[in-house]
Design a protein that fits this description.
single chain, alpha/beta, 42% helix
Length: 134
Amino acid sequence: MKILIDTHIAIWAVSDDPKLPKVAKDILMDEHNEIFYSTASIWEIIIKHMTHPEKVIIDGYTLAKSCEDSGFKVLPILNQHTFALKDLKYPDNAPRHNDPFDRILIAQAKVEEMKFLTHDSLIPYYYESFIISI
């Protein structure tokens, strides 16, 4: 199974953070799964590290290198990923979700027919069958 991991899952995985749930570890360690991280995650971390280095200790280069060292594959952002953003539905009555990085990650997973592994409590509101919320 092909799995795209959310930014925080990537960070927790490469830093062996105890916040990473066991079910996520099992998915990441399953040799039958191909694990991908997105260029969007690197972009997100570069911006957050530049603006708040005291809060976001890892920088984009380190995250990318650590993901590659862990055997994760990079998924670049393609035009068709951005075009798919218009097809994402988020209910009006759901809690507000304004994270453009989350939206592009969801669109990438949808276009590439991947599962999307996240711990973000707002992402399941998209009601997409490929989202794995842990």
